Amino acid sequence: MAAKDNVRVDVSRTPVYFDAVPLVIVAALLLLTACGGGQFPQSIFTPHSDFSRDLNGLFKNIFAWAVGVFVVVETLLLIAIVRFRARAGGPAPKPIHGHTALEIGWTAAPAIILLFIVVPTMRTIFATAGNAPEGALRVEVIGHQWWWEYRYPTLGISTFNELHIPAKTAIQLDMTSADVIHSFWIPSLAGKRDLIQGRTNRIAFRADSTGEYWGQCAEFCGASHANMRLRVMVESDSVFQRWVDRQRTAPVAPAKGSTEETGQQVFRRSACIGCHTIAGISTAKVGPELSHVGGRATIAGALLPNTAEALHRWIRNAPAVKPGALMPPQNLQGADLDAVVAYLQSLK
Amino acid sequence: MKSWLTTTDHKRIGLLYFWTAFSFFMIGGLEALLIRTQLARPAGIGVSAETFNQLFTMHGTTMVFLALMPLSAAFFNFIIPLQIGARDVAFPRLNAFSYWVFLLGGLFINASFIAGPLFGAGRLSVAPDAGWFGYANLTSRQFSPGPNVDFWLLGLQILGIASLAAGFNFVVTILNMRAPGMRMLRLPPFTWMALITQFLIITAFPVITVALVLLMFDRFFGTHFFLPAGGGDPILWQHLFWMFGHPEVYILILPAMGIVSEVLPTFSRKPLFGYTVVVYSGVVIAFLGWSVWAHHMFASGLGPIADSVFAGTTMLIAVPTGVKIFNWIGTLWGGQIRFTTALLFAVGFIAMFIIGGLSGVSHASAPTDLQQTDTYYVVAHIHYVLFGGTILGLFSGMYYWWPKMTGRLLSERLGKVHFWLTMIGMNLAFFPMHFSGLLGMPRRIYTYSPELGVAGFNLVSTIGAFVIGIATLVFFWSLLRTRWQPVTAPPNPWEGATLEWAIPSPPPVYNFTVIPTVANRLPLWATERHGAMAPLPDRPPAPIHVPGGSWWPMITAAGLPTMAIGALAHFLPVVLLGVAVTIVGIYRWAYEPFEM
Q: Same CATH topology for A41-127 and A259-346?
C-alpha cells in the first residue's frame, strides 16, 4: 500500500505485548483505597429520604447501563488491537471504507439505550421538582458567607447551621441567599439546590429515619467555601417539639455572681452585640443569632464541635479558623474570654 | 531572532504556538500538583484558602485557554495548510497577530501571580480566584474587591481576540485555499474537525465576550447586569457563560477526535471506517453542542420543563459520539495495526474517552446530577474527557506530526515510557475522584473533614498526579533531545495517506513545489479504487511567492495588553496609549508594501 519509496521507520515490527503489569498495579491500588472502609457520612449511597432514594435508584439504573456499554465497547476495542496486530509478511488489509447497515445499527443502539435512561429521568425530574404536599413544614433557608440561617415561619423560630426537622413529615425548603450563590446539599436527604440572591428555589423531601445527616455548601462561594458545612438533625415528633419549645423560650438569665453572668456583661460591653442577637440582650443581625447557641452540636458553620476549647479558638481569632470570616479577632483575654465562653455555653 | 518575531510562515507560527502552549501546559500542571499536594490529606500542607482558590482558578483557565486550545492551534497552523495543499493560511499576518495576542494575553493573566505589590495587596499574588467559570455575583466588586477578577476578565477578552482572529482565518483557509480537486468530502478528517471547531469558536467566543464586557461594566462602571441587589440577574451570567462554555468543550475535543481519525487509519493501514459518518457526526456534535448548555445549571432551579429538555438534548450527544467511537474501532478492525506511540495514544484516547462519556451520561440525567454536580465526580468526568480525551489525542498528534514539524523522529522507547506512565498516572489520579465525589467531597475546597472518609482516595489521586508529572517530564526530555538530533525524518515515516506526507520533513517554506491536484481522499495510498499520486518534483519549476515578515502584527497585538494594564490601574492615558498603538499598528499593517 505504501506508495512512495520512502525510508520506512520500522518502529513497530517488534512484537508488541500489551503489558498488563501497569494495569494490575492500578487495579490493586484502586482496590486498596476502596477497602479503606469506614463511615461515609456524606455519601450519596445512603439515602434516608424519598428524594435521595429516587436519585439513588436512578443513578443505579444509569450505572448499570454504563457498565454494560463500557464492557462491550472496551472489549471490542481490546479484541481489535490484540487480533489485528501487524504481522511480518501479513497480507495487506482489505481497504474497507464503511458499512451502511453497521452505521445504522450503532446509531440506533445507543439511541435505544438512552430511551431506557431518559424516561425514568423525566419521571424523576417531575417527581423531585420541589412541590411539597399541603401541610408540609416550610423552612426558609438563607445562605450567608459562610453560614446558614433557617427560619420556620409557621413556628415563629429560627436557627443556624444545624437544621432540625421531624422525621416522616413532608418538608419544604424555600431557599435564597443574602450574598453570593451557595448550594444546599445533604446527600442523604436531598440533591443540591442553589441559593441565589433575589430568587427563591425550592426542594421538598420527607426524611424517613431519625439521625444526624451531614452536608456542606456545594457552590464555590469565596474564601471559606470549604468551611461552609451543615448538619440536619432529623428527630422524632416529640424530640422535635421539645426542641421547638426550647427555641421559643428566651434563654434563662444567668445566676447572680456566676461566671456566666460575668460573661453576659463582657458580651454586652464588647463588640459581640454589634453583630449578634441574644434575646433580651442585643438585636444585631450581621452574624447568626446566639440565643440558643449552647444547645447546638457545632459552631462556626458546623465546622467545629461546640466545646469550650473550640469556642475559645473561634472567638480569639475566627479568620484563622475560617479564612475570610467577617468576625474579626476579638481582643478578649483570660478571665473575660472564659466567662464569655461559659455564658455562650449556658444558652441552651 | 528577528525572522521569528516577524514571521508569517504558518509552520513557524505553528511551532511558536506549540512551545508557548506547552510551556503554559507545564505551568498549569504545576498548579495542579500544588492543588493535589494540598489535598493529599484533609488538613493539607498549609496552602491558604485564598492561594488555593487562585490555584484552581488558574489551573482551569490556563489549561482551557492557554494550553489545550493553543496546542490544537499549533496543529491547525502547521498541518491544515499542508493537508489541503496550500502554501500558507489565507491571512498570514493575521495568523501572526493571533499568536502574539495569545502569548501576550497569557503573559498578562499570569502576571497576576506577581503583581500584588503594585496594587498594595499585601501579598505577592493577586491571581484570579473566582473559578474559571467566574460565577456572578461572587465576581462583583463587593465580593471580589481586588484586581484578581479584573486580570481574569481582561485577560480572557484579550485571548478571545486571538481565538476569533484565528477562527476566521482558518475558516477562510479551509474553504478557499484547498488544492484543485480537494472537495469538501475529500478533506482529511483532522481538517474537517478543525473546520467545525473554527465555526464553534467564531460563534461561541462572541457570547463569552459579551458576558465579559457586561461583567467589566459591572466592575468598572457600576452597572448591575449580574447583581440582584441592583435589579440584575446572576443566572444571566450562567446562561451566557455556559452558552460559550459547552461549545468550548467541543472546541477542545473535536481537534483531538480529528487527530485520532488520522492516526488510526495510518497505523491500521486501512481507510477511516465510515469517513462521511465520522465527518457528519462531528457536525451533529457541534450543532447539538449548542443546545445543551443548561445541563451545567440543573441545581440552579430552572424548573422541570427546562431540566427535561436539556437532559434530553445532552443525552442525544451520546449518539454521534458513540458513532465516532464505533467507527474508530471499525477502522482498527481487520487492519494491520502498528503499535507506534502515536497509535497507543490514539487507542488510549478511545479507551479513556469512553469512561468520560459514560459518566457524562450520568450527569446528563438532571436528577442524578443533583447529587453529582460540583463534586469530585464531575472533576473525574472532565479529566477523563479533557485529559483522557483531548490531551491523549494531542499527544498522539505530537508523536505523529513531530517528524513532519521538525524533521526529527521522537524516541519510540521514551514514547512508550511516556504512554504507560501517563495511562497509569491519569487513572490513579482521576479514577478515585469518582469515589471521593460520590462519597460527598465537593470540588473547589482547600480542606475537607477527615470524617468524610475520602482521605485515602485523595492520597491516591495525588500520587497519580505526580506520576502524570513524571510522564510529562519524560515527554519534555524526549522533545528536547530531538533538538540535538540530525534532521533524518523521511518525508513519510508512517506511510500516511494525506498530502502533508508528500513533501519533505520539515517542509520547505513554500510547502509544495507544485500544488498537487487531488483526485481522492487518500492521495498517497493505492487502494482498490485508485493508484497513488505521482510524486511531486523535487524543485519548484517556477519561482514561488511567499509572504514576507512583518512587525505590525506583533505591534498591533501589543496594544491590547497595554489597554488592559491601563484598565487594571484605572489610568486612562495608558488605555488610550494602547488604543493608539493598535490603531497605528492596523493602519501600517494595512498599507504595508506587498513585497518586502
A: no
CA A326 vs. chain centroid, Å, equals: 23
Question: Domain A137-248 belongs to what architecture?
Answer: Sandwich (2.60)
Contact B322 A41 (CB under 8 A): no
**How sure is the predictor about A65, in pLDDT bands with cuts at 50, 70 and 90?**
very high
ipTM > 0.90 (yes/no) = yes
Q: How far is B169 from chain A (nearest CA, A)?
A: 32
CB pairs under 8 A between A and B: 354
The answer to whether B308 and A125 have CB atoms below 8 angstroms apart is: yes
- State the alpha helices, DSSP H only, in A17-142: 21-34, 50-83, 100-127
Question: A185-225: per-residue pLDDT in tens?
Answer: 999 999 999 999 999 999 999 999 999 999 999 999 999 99
Kindly report the CATH class assigned to A41-127.
Answer: mainly alpha
Nearest to A12 among B340, B447, B489 (CB): B340
Where do the structural domains in chain A lie, given as residue ranges?
Answer: 41-127, 137-248, 259-346
Are the beta carbons of A97 and B273 separated by less than 8 Å? yes
With a cut of 80, say whether residue A137 has pLDDT above it.
yes
Cβ atoms of B511 and B87 within 8 Å: the answer is: yes
For domain A259-346, the CATH class is: mainly beta
Which helix H or strand E contains B308, and what residues bound it?
Answer: helix B304-332
A166 forms beta bridges with A235
Q: For the whole model, what pTM was predicted?
A: 0.94
Strands A229-235 and A211-216: antiparallel
Indicate if the pLDDT at residue A9 is higher than 70: no
Q: What is the pLDDT of residue A1?
A: 37
A30 and B460: CB-CB below 8 Å?
Answer: yes
The shortest C-alpha distance from B91 to chain A (Å) reads 32
- Is A107 in contact with B323 (Cβ distance < 8 A)? yes
pLDDT, mean over chain A: 89
Give the minimum alpha-carbon distance from B524 to chain A in angstroms, rounded to a whole number.
6
